Amino acid sequence: MAIKAMMMGAAGLALAFAAGCGSSVDDDDGAGAGGTGGGGVCAGFADEAGAGTVTVRFRNDSMETIYLPALCDSLDYTIEPAGGSDGVSYAFSGSCLQTCEDLQTESQIACGACQQTTYQLLPGATREVVWAGTGLQGGIEMPAACWESPETGGTCGRVVAAPAGTYRAGALGFGSCSGECNCDAEGLCVGSATGLEAYHEPVSFAFPTAAPVEVVFGVCTFGCGED
Are strands 66-71 and 74-75 parallel, antiparallel or unpaired? Predict the structure, then answer.
């Protein structure tokens, strides 16, 4: 199973409309309330495109297999401003996600929970994800006239362009996988990453950038004993 182009860290998944991946949404070509009643006001809640994409490469330089947690088959990693969190989830998954823009022409859907999965990173192996240079901003109050189903109302999330600046990239790895942990040819395993934590050196990068960002789990990722 291919890794999705945009992924979300587990800590940034509190939005109810983005939880799980058990349902799908059909495109609605008709104009809902957001296309008429909200007028130009609703256009202000449209999703934004990023200034560019960034390839984030995870590399295992240790002698041990590392397991990287996944959410709905999307590798769970983090990207955040070097100065600290600004309330935007910069690594998020599009699985079962309905943004404010989507909800102007779609009814809200309920998603089921995803099965527990993890990615196996063998010694010497790499795995790449592509960050779209965007983030998910939640808790946005959109006028009722903009919703396809105004009675649902409430808050929604919007994809926003990441501002230029310095960011940090990372992921938390583990030394084992719970359950039977059957893995396919692409290294996606059914099971949960568990056991010893694998650490990597902090990685910072300037955005926008055309260069890949490498997150390296070194030879002492699980700790090195004293001579």
Answer: antiparallel
For residue 62, give both structure tokens.
């240790």
Tokens of 42: 């609703």
Q: Prior bond to 202 cis, omega within 30?
A: no
Q: CB–CB of 28/103 below 8 Å?
A: no
Cα separation of 54 and 206, whole Å?
10
- Positive or negative CA dihedral for 148, 136, 10, 123? positive
φ/ψ of residue 43, rounded to 5: -65, -25
Angle at 156 between CA 151 and CA 159, to 5 degrees: 145
Q: What is the pTM of this model?
A: 0.80
pLDDT in tens, the chain (227 residues): 333 333 334 333 333 333 344 333 333 333 333 443 445 899 999 999 999 999 999 999 999 999 999 988 899 999 999 999 999 999 998 888 999 999 999 998 888 888 899 999 999 999 999 999 999 999 999 999 999 988 877 899 999 999 999 999 999 999 999 988 999 999 999 999 999 999 999 999 999 999 999 999 999 999 886 54
